Prior knowledge:
The chain has 170 residues and is of the alpha+beta class. The protein folds into 2 domains: 3-39; 48-165, Rieske [2Fe-2S] iron-sulphur domain (Rieske Iron-sulfur Protein, 3-layer Sandwich), CATH 2.102.10. The protein has helices spanning 3-12, 19-39, 156-161, and strands at 48-50, 56-60, 70-76, 79-87, 93-97, 110-113, 116-119, 125-127, 146-148, 151-155. The longest helix is centred in the first third of the chain and has 21 residues, at 19-39. The N and C termini lie far apart (70 Å).
Amino acid sequence: MDGRQQKKAQFQQPRKNKRPLLIAMTLIILVGIAVAWALLPMGVGHSRLVGAKGGQVILPVGSLTGGEAHFFRYAGAGGEIAFFLVQSRDGVIHAAFDSCDVCYKSRKGYRQEGDFMVCNNCNQQFRTDLVNEVQGGCNPAPLRREVRGQQVVIQATDLEAGSRYFLAAN
């Protein structure tokens, strides 16, 4: 066969079915997305943006009961400030920045595992009833809060004081 006939024969061959390749590529992409989602810290994507009114962030106590940590973001002057509130077994609502003095540069925050908050960077565990009570090291950085009747009140100035944990320059 000469070159022209070879080229003609090449284009006259039946087309290969590309469906299996397309299915395999789709599955690989879906598995990659699932793995990436599973590796995200618990607070990521599950936090709620809150604002201050009259210099205060006010959250209803009823939405914070049950022992599950609730993650929030506050739009501070220097950027978003992440924090969480959790009600421990003793009924006390605890508040902390979603960061600590040691691992804040990793910007990974905490996740909840039962009655413990776990650092997403170093995996150290901290009892929920000690959040905001014990500070320093990898303990969640305390955030002042006040329970007034059926509301948790956090001063915007207290949130802004924790901005150092979240500044891009750190």
